[in-house]
From TrEMBL, chains A, B:
InterPro entries: HTH_LacI, LacI/GalR-like_sensor, Lambda_DNA-bd_dom_sf, Peripla_BP_I. It comes from Sinorhizobium sojae CCBAU 05684. This is Transcriptional regulator AglR, LacI family. Keywords: DNA-binding, Transcription, Transcription regulation. Pfam families: LacI, Peripla_BP_3. Gene3D superfamilies: 3.40.50.2300, lambda repressor-like DNA-binding domains (1.10.260.40). Residues 3-57 form the HTH lacI-type domain. CDD domains: HTH_LacI, PBP1_AglR-like. It comes from the Bacteria. GO terms for molecular function: DNA-binding transcription factor activity; transcription cis-regulatory region binding.
Length: 343, 343
C-alpha cells in the first residue's frame, strides 16, 4: 500500500519536481522543505522506483570498482575502510556498486567491459602506479571517473583526490631531524605504487635540506602486514649502524616494527623514535599502542566518502566540486618520538 | 581481431558445446581438452561476450551482497578477507558482484529490491543473528542464496556454510581445563551475532563437563578491535579473582589483550594462557605474536571461495554441492598456552 511520487506530492502540497529534487539532494531545496519531504517519506514508506527511474533517465545509479585478485594477492584492510566511506555516501543517494574482480594483468580490459556494460554511471580507480596505463584508458572511455591518488609522470589532467604524501613524510622526517636524528629508516609500501615513491621522496627532500643523503640500506618496500614490519625492523637493528628513527607507511607495519624494537630491548621514544602513517583504521589506533605513536594522519574513510560525493554529484548534476584535491595529512605528535640518543 | 566461439572451436577441431563447457568449468570435460582450450584462449585472445550471453541466457553473471553501513558502523577487516575469497572464485567464471549499501534497519527491503532488480542471479547473506528475520525473506524470494553462518532458532532448512563455533570454543576451553585452568575469561564478538552466542556456549559446555559454571563477570562482548581487547583484559585483571586463561574471538582482540597482559607484568603461557580464534587474516598472523598464539583456525577467505563456488555452480548448473556445510576449526597449539599457575 505504498504511495507513489504523485500521491506523496499531493499529500505535501508540493510539486512532484520539488519532491523529487528534495529526495535527490538538490541544493536549491530549502532545509525546511527537505525535512518535511523526508518526514513524509518515513511515515508513508514511499520509495522511488529505481527501475522506473533507470528507464526514464538512462542512469544505472551505480559506481563501478575493479578489484585486482589472484590466489597470491592478500586482501587489503585499507580497501575495506575506503569502501565503507564510499558506501556511507552512496547510501544517502540510493546508489550501489558493481565490483568486478580482475586478474592484475587484465585490469584495463576489465575497465573497458565495465564501462561498456551500461551497468555503471561512473568508475573509481585506485592503487596508482607510475605512468599508470589505466588513466589514458579511462580518459578514452566516455564515462566519468575519479582517481584515488595520482599517477607519476604524464599529464595531470584527470580528476583525483590524493593525500600529499611527499609533504606528509617530509614533515615527519623534518621533525626527526630537528630532534637530532640522522639515521632514519623507512618501511614503505609496495615499491611500484605512487604513494610509496612520494613518501620516500619526502624523506629524501628533508634529508637534503640537512645536507644528508638517504641510505638505501635503510629503506624496505613491502606489503602492509605486521610480519613485514617485524622482519624489516629486525634486519635494520642487526646492521652495524642501526637507525635511531623509523618512518612507517602504515600502523599495521608499525605493529611489527614495535615488536622487533621491544624484543631488542630498546625503548621507543628514548632509544629509537617511530612515526607511522595513520589511515584511521578503527581496528588499530595509534593512540593505543603501548607507547602511543606519532603519526601523519589522513582518514581513508573520509576520502572514500568524498570521492562518492564527487562522483554522484557529477552523475545527478548536484553542483560543482573541485576536480583535483590534494589533502594535507596532519602530523600528530605522541610519545613515540623524542630527541636522538647520544652515542 | 579477436576470434569468436565458432572460430575458436574450428581452430581446435572441437564442437562449440565442448569449448563452451571447458570454459565454464564443467566437470565432464577432461583435463587435457580443458588445457588445450585454455591455451587457445590465451593465444587468440578469445573472450566470451557477456552482454550477448546475458541476453541469450537471461543471467546477470552476478552475485548480490548487502553491506550494512551507517556513520557509526566501523568497517570490518573480516569482510575484506571474505570478499577476497568470493572474488578469487568469481573471477574464474567471469562473475561480478553487486554491492548494495544499506542502513542496518533497512536490510530486508534492500534484499527485496536486489532480488527484484534482475541485476543478480543469487545473493549472499552473513552476520547471522538469532532468529534472523532475513532468512524467511530470502526463502520467499525466488532467487538462490547461501548463508555464511547459521541463525539460531527456527527451522534449519536453508543453504549455509558455517564454522562449528560451539565445537571450536568447546575444544579450546577443554584444553585449558586439562591444563588446570578454572577461571577462564572470554572476550567475545558482538552479543547479537550467532557466532558469539555459539562460542560462549562452547565454553559453557566444557565448564559444565568439569562441574564448573561460567562466571558472567568474566565475559565481555565487543567489536573486533585492538582497543576493546585491551580494555576488556585490563578490567579482567583488575578484578579480585583475575582469570588464569583467556579465550578471544579474534586475533585483533588478542592484540589488545596481550598488551594489557604485558603491561600488568604477566608472562603469557606461564602466568596466563591465551587462545584466540584465527580467521587467517594476512595482516596479522598468530605465529608472529611475541609469544605465538594458540588458536582455533578457520580461513575466512576459503569460506568466501567455497560460497562463491556453490552459488556459481547453482547458477550455471555445474554440478551438485552439499547444501549445508559445517566446517570444523583446527585447534593449533603454540606457546601462549601452558599449565595453570599454582596459587
Amino acid at each position: 500500500m505504498a504511495v507513489n511520487l504523485k500521491q506523496l506530492a499531493e499529500l505535501l502540497g508540493l510539486s512532484q519536481t520539488t519532491v523529487s529534487r528534495a529526495l535527490n539532494g538538490y541544493p536549491e531545496v530549502n532545509a525546511e522543505t527537505r525535512r518535511r519531504v523526508l518526514d513524509a517519506v518515513r511515515t508513508t514508506g514511499y520509495r522511488p522506483n529505481r527501475a522506473a527511474q533507470r528507464l526514464a533517465t538512462g542512469k544505472a545509479y551505480s559506481i563501478g570498482l575493479v578489484m585486482p585478485i589472484a590466489s597470491g594477492i592478500d586482501s587489503d584492510i585499507h580497501f575495506g575502510e575506503f569502501l565503507a566511506g564510499l558506501a556511507e555516501e552512496a547510501l544517502k543517494h540510493d546508489f550501489h556498486f558493481v565490483l568486478n574482480p580482475s586478474a592484475p594483468d587484465d585490469e584495463e580490459a576489465t575497465f573497458r567491459r565495465l564501462a561498456a556494460s551500461g551497468n555503471v554511471d561512473a568508475v573509481f580507480l585506485a592503487y596508482m602506479r607510475q605512468n599508470d596505463p589505466r588513466i589514458p584508458i579511462l580518459k578514452s572511455l566516455s564515462i566519468p571517473f575519479v582517481v584515488h591518488g595520482r599517477s607519476m609522470g604524464g599529464p595531470r589532467d584527470y580528476p583525483f583526490l590524493d593525500v600529499d604524501n611527499t609533504r606528509a613524510f617530509y614533515d615527519a622526517a623534518k621533525l626527526l631531524l630537528q630532534l637530532g636524528h640522522r639515521r632514519i629508516a623507512l618501511i614503505n609500501g609496495p615499491e611500484h605504487l605512487a604513494f610509496s615513491v612520494r613518501r620516500k621522496k619526502g624523506l629524501m627532500r628533508a634529508l637534503e635540506e640537512w645536507g644528508l643523503r638517504l641510505d638505501e640500506a635503510l629503506v624496505h618496500h613491502s606489503e602492509m602486514t605486521d610480519e613485514y614490519g617485524y622482519r624489516s625492523m629486525q634486519s635494520f637493528l642487526e646492521r652495524p649502524g642501526p637507525p635511531t628513527a623509523l618512518l612507517c607507511a602504515s600502523t599495521v607495519l608499525a605493529l611489527g616494527a614495535v615488536r622487533a624494537i621491544n624484543q631488542a630491548g630498546l625503548v621507543i621514544g628514548r632509544d629509537i623514535s617511530v612515526i607511522a602513517h595513520d589511515d584511521v583504521l578503527p581496528m588499530l589506533r595509534p593512540e593505543n599502542f603501548s607507547v602511543p605513536l606519532t603519526t601523519t594522519r589522513s582518514s581513508l574513510r573520509a576520502a572514500g566518502a568524498r570521492i562518492a560525493t564527487r562522483l554522484i554529484a557529477g552523475i545527478l548534476n548536484l553542483g560543482d566540486y573541485p576536480q583535483q584535491e590534494l589533502w594535507r595529512a596532519e602530523l600528530i605528535v605522541r610519545a613515540s618520538t623524542g630527541s636522538a640518543p647520544e652515542r
